[in-house]
Amino acid sequence: MLFNSIDYFFFFIACYITYWISPSRFRKYILIVFSLLFYGYWSGSFLIHFVLFIIITHLCVIGILKTKRKIFLILGVSINLLNLCFFKYVLTYLKYLMSEGELTIPFFQSLSEFVLPLAISFYTFQMIAYLVDAWRGKFTESPFVNFLLFILFFPQLIAGPIMRHDDFYDQIDHAKLTLDFVQRGIFHILSGLIKKVLIADQIAKLINPVYANPGEYDGISIFLSTFAFSFQVYGDFSGYTDLARGSAFLLGYEIPENFRSPFLSVSFAELWSRWHYTLSTWIRDYLYIPLGGNRVTELRYNINTIIVMSLSGLWHGNTYTFFLWGFFHGIFLSIERFAFGKPNRSSMTPLKKVFAVIWIFTIFSILATFFRIDTLEKISTFWSSVINLKGKIIYKPDFWGLMIGSYILQFVEFKNYFKEKLEPYILWLIPVCTILVYFALVKIEAATETFIYFQF
Amino acid sequence: MTHNKIYFYPFILIFFVFTIDKIACIPDFREAARRPYKSGQNILIGFPKVWEENKRLQSEKINVTVVTGSSRSDIFHEWENIPVNKNTYNQPIYFETRLALKASEYFLYYLLLKSMVNGGFKPNLLFIEFSEEMLNENNVYSYKTKWKELMLTERELIDIYPAFNLKYKLDILTRLLFVAYNYHIRPIQGISNLIKGERAADDTYFIALSSYLNKKRPFNPNNTGIEIDNFTPKEYEERIVNYSRSQEQLLLNNFLISETEVGFLKKIIDLAEENNIPTVIWEPQVHPYYKERRKSITGGNLFDTISERLIEKDSKNIRRISLNRGNTNCRLYTDSSHVSPLCVPEIVDKLLQTAKEIPNFQ
């Protein structure tokens, strides 16, 4: 069920009414039921699989808390990683071999019908973090119902943000609807719809044909489509996060931010603190620091950075191009640290900042080709088209409109300028914005595009 | 704002949008501000004219048979006058073949037949094609593609609501509640058109489609298919093997019986029964190679199981026949999925013989 779909609109209204008219002691159970329905709407059988892994993980957590034995941590983490690796990597590889006719396994004849369980990468990371936090003694008891809600909570279930228990547990049983939450909720939903439906989906319509047949387009269109793709992914994922946060606000919960104007970053280090922030901090806390963090030699630090970023790439997808995407980001992070240390925004002149922003965004966009295209051969075909002097073009007024709109969103997010200036007018600003967004949405005819990050 | 009122805030906002949206209900504004009609819509808009023509034919004592179906029925359209065996049927008869539309299915037929009934036209006979591909939920030409293109009126939406699955029911409900969504209203365009005294500029398909619909398209005598045993290996590979593969990919992919399409077939049957329209539901013949491949996907007996389920045993208006059981003399195929237009007279003869079993058919 997509957040920008009519199904979700009705689903959320049903949940909102049931949730708030019920006595507060029942509310978390209602959220669990609706979250189960939300996941089950996609696949009943994978819902059983999902719940089974939640139960197994929780048993391991109980084992850790009661006995303090490391075996439960190893068991819990291993089971979750095996689950992720089986569906995301092994099954995909077997399917590939079978499709190429190189492998025949009678039991797996219907393998092509298997799909990647929705949200597996997100919930696996969330459960691993919970196991590690239990081992680190960050909490001493783990009520199953709370854990169930923490993992299943439908606004963040499918594509994050990746939550930690301390982001969420304190809010269970204390969720309240305040005017601030309602207003922030509605603004986040409006912002999410703008980013997803009016920006990302519209960019997709323009650039999908370019990626499908790069040879038909001129070089400038090829180059511009890589920038546009960066905005598409941003609008798509950041839009999803806004819709998730907006829904959570309306249910009385605040879940973490995930994006903070990444395309205004002046360094790669800053970019990763602004892009998919909850994944970056997860990797920092549960992978990077255990590998030694900053307390190692420069060489080891750089190697760790490259390893961690490459794994982050693999987390996103199961093709080697995703690995390369992460690997190259690791390389750029290492080079940046070697060349500039830790670039500091406040010490930069405005001109230097502008150049830095252009540099970071350009490299990010060029590397995004590895994110978008699944083989090196196709990437090579794509980039070889950049020398085309003639061909179809995408840089028409609607393209530039979307690009400018995307950057305006970055500034709005970055400055947080509007929050204070517009606060006194919020009561009439909400209905006006709602009407504007409503008429912008109803104009669109095509079916909604699915969210890119759902595949992870 | 008191604490209790906060809970109603989102609903107040929805109600506000609902109220503003109602401006779009004003017909003059809606016609000025809506999205232009597209080709699929124009089929619906164009048909009242067709029904008027058919009423005129009936007034001249010519019996009108309406033929609905996909490309397998489109061959009816390729005859200026289909020769009818006088021993089978000896009255003047005209075949209205403009409802035989390539890549069509029961949702579209229902809308067309409903417009026929609403237009006050009752055919003397109705042929409805039954092809298993039409029942595939994942057929690329299923009701879903028509749904994306059509902009139905509120009355039509209410009428078709029960036949749809939950997902589409919710969509219909939203379209009924928020009219601007149904008509893809563009307020600035609407205001501008109102000032200029204009209405939404529709695509020009209608003129082309109208002339297309009004003409029979006689087949090319040099291209009437190949006899079943006379395909060269190359022709067999192209027209039978490869064509079957493409049909499987487009029409039979992930075959799953669509309860929505079945629901619309049921609605067509109900429409025929309520209006006492003599109807023959028939299954077209396909090449044996494709028949076997299709059978391995669908089971091959949907014509019996589904039509038996939907048609009352003692129906006074409906009979059915499969022509895909080796019960014709037709041996000419243009490809694995279509027989030659030269087979049409025999098909018509078989269908008219079946029609004669209908109590309400004169």
Description:
- The complex is a heterodimer of chains A (456) and B (362).
- Chain A is mainly α and 456 residues long.
- Chain A is 69% helix and 0% strand.
- Chain A has helices spanning 6-21, 27-40, 44-67, 70-99, 120-135, 144-152, 154-157, 165-168, 179-212, 219-250, 268-272, 277-288, 298-316, 320-340, 350-372, 376-384, 397-415, 417-422, 426-442.
- The radius of gyration of chain A is 23 Å and the shape is globular.
- Chain B has one domain (26-355).
- Chain B contains 17 helices and eight strands.
- Chain B has helices at residues 3-6, 9-21, 27-33, 39-59, 71-74, 106-118, 143-149, 154-160, 166-177, 179-183, 187-196, 205-214, 233-251, 259-274, 288-298, 302-310, 344-355; strands spanning 63-69, 93-100, 125-129, 226-227, 279-283, 318-322, 332-335, 338-339.
Helix/sheet category of chain A: mainly alpha
Largest interface between protein chains, with number of residues from each side: A-B, 26 and 24 residues
- Output the structural class of chain B: alpha/beta
Largest sheet: number of strands, sense, barrel closure of chain A: none
Distance separating the two termini of chain B: 73 Å
- Put simply, the count of helices of chain A is 19
Order of helices and strands of chain B: HHHHEHEHEHHHHHHEHHEHHEEEH
How many domains of chain B? Answer: 1
> Widest sheet of chain B: strand order?
2-1-3-5-6
Mean pLDDT of chain B: 88
DSSP E strands of chain B, number: 8
Largest sheet of chain B: 5 strands, parallel
In sequence order, what are the helices and strands of chain A, one letter per element?
A: HHHHHHHHHHHHHHHHHHH
What can be said about this structure in brief?
The complex is a heterodimer of chains A (456) and B (362). Chain A has 456 residues and is mainly α.
Features:
heterodimer, A: 456 residues, mainly alpha, 2 domains, 19 helices, B: 362 residues, alpha/beta, 5-stranded parallel β-sheet, 3-stranded antiparallel β-sheet, 50% helix
